[in-house]
Structures are given as structure tokens and as C-alpha cells.
Amino acid sequence: MNRTDRMTAKDMVEQLQILANEGEIDVEDVPEITTVASWITRYAASLKKQSAIEKVAEGS
Asked: Can you give the pTM of this predicted structure?
């Protein structure tokens, strides 16, 4: 993954708000920044855990 392609929770919500303003998605479907930040945190933790499990399995 290219680090320059990363988006913050705020960036994601702003992009979703643009889509909502253009009518592509409902305004009610745009989550709060804190919700997106929580998703990112949980996803990153899940990836880290999976990576650790794979490294342990490789070492066995």
C-alpha cells in the first residue's frame, strides 16, 4: 500500500459528504468522523493481530 494514498477519517467523511451532495448516497448514510475513526482503529488492530498469528505460524 502506498502511504500517500491513505485517508484520514475526516477525509473519508468529507468524500462521503460530497457523494451525498451529488445525490449518489443518502445524507443519512454518511457516518460521523468518530465512527469512521473507530472503524479504522478496529481494522488496523485486526490486521496487526492477523499478522502476528501468521508470523507465529511461520515460526512453528
From this structure: 0.76
